[in-house]
UniProtKB/TrEMBL annotation:
Name the record gives this protein: Uncharacterized protein DUF3185
TM annotation in the entry: 45-63
The species this protein was found in: Gallaecimonas pentaromativorans
Keywords, comma-separated and alphabetical: Membrane, Transmembrane, Transmembrane helix
InterPro entries registered for this protein in UniProt: DUF3185
A Pfam family recorded for this sequence: DUF3185
Length: 65
């Protein structure tokens, strides 16, 4: 039961981090910078990667028996 709770918490944190990264990438300065350089900011990528890792770990924790 504890693993499922931890998995659920990781899932929620992962979704929040991914959403935060998306919001960060949609600011005017980040949009202009992204258009000029063709790359995302390292901070934005950190949010995306950390969010994805937490989502995967959370899914494993929730779906594992």
């Amino acid at each position: 039961m504890n693993k499922r709770i931890i998995g659920l918490v990781l899932l929620v944190v992962g979704v929040a981090l991914a959403w935060w990264g998306y919001q960060e990438s949609q600011t005017l300065s980040k949009t202009v910078e992204s258009q000029l350089t063709g790359e995302l900011d390292s901070r934005t990528m950190t949010f995306y990667i950390a969010g994805a890792v937490c989502i995967v770990l959370g899914l494993v924790g929730v779906l594992r028996r």
